[in-house]
Amino acid sequence: MKPRRRPLALLPAAACLCAALVGAPAAAGDGVSPVATYVDPFRVQAQGLRATGVYLHVSPALFALDVRSPGFQMWGWGLGAGRYWTMRKRLAIAFGGFFEHMLWVNPYENNWAGKTLNFLRFGPELRIGASNERVFAYGLVRLGLDLLVGTPQTSLARMFVAEVGVGLQGALGKQRRLLLGVEPAFDVSVPAPWLLFRARAFVGVRF
């Protein structure tokens, strides 16, 4: 009895199967499926403003004016630091603290408020919004202590400040660690009736 010959058509199929088995481990090691169409999400790290980390802001330019008396204008500077989280597809949250010093120089001849007023502010801050790797757009909330120094009645007046606003910041550089941003906002101090519109520009770094 003669042995049965295997069909020649099976040889190409067997060769393709062997090539797939050999190539599968190498592809899996790169986080790609054997057909090279799927990237393993557990092996991909978030970049830029989609990566959780720590931030530091320095604000060299801060301008504010009282909305009821636009002639009452102040200039200042500030610092901010905290932690940044990303969740789901676009949601981002940043929570930290801030310190600001704002100065008002009395342009009037009378001495009802002295020559200068210094506002020292500090407290927690919260930003909630949407981000991609390069841009973070958000709403801003701040609560804190507002110390007014330089009044003729007392050397130190204690107040509380609440602030709400919006902001936009971008991440620059190869690693997207340099931050540039701007934040317009309104704030009110009590019990003194300060009602300020303010604009804050800042530079920062993401760790």
Order of helices and strands: HEEEEEEEE
Distance between the termini: 78 Å
Q: What is the overall silhouette?
A: elongated
Number of strands: 8
Organism: Nannocystis pusilla
Signal peptide: 1-28
Keywords: Signal
Protein name: DUF3575 domain-containing protein
Model description:
This is DUF3575 domain-containing protein. Residues 1-28 form the signal peptide. With 207 residues, this protein is mainly beta. It folds into two domains: 10-43, no CATH class; 48-206, Beta Barrel (Porin), CATH 2.40.160. Helices cover 10% and strands 58% of the residues. It has one helix and eight strands, in the order αββββββββ. It has one helix spanning 10-29; strands spanning 53-66, 69-87, 91-105, 116-131, 135-149, 157-172, 178-190, 194-206. It has an eight-stranded antiparallel barrel with strand order 1-2-3-4-5-6-7-8. β5 and β6 (157-172) form a beta hairpin. It is elongated. Residues 20-37 and 39-43 have low confidence and may be disordered.
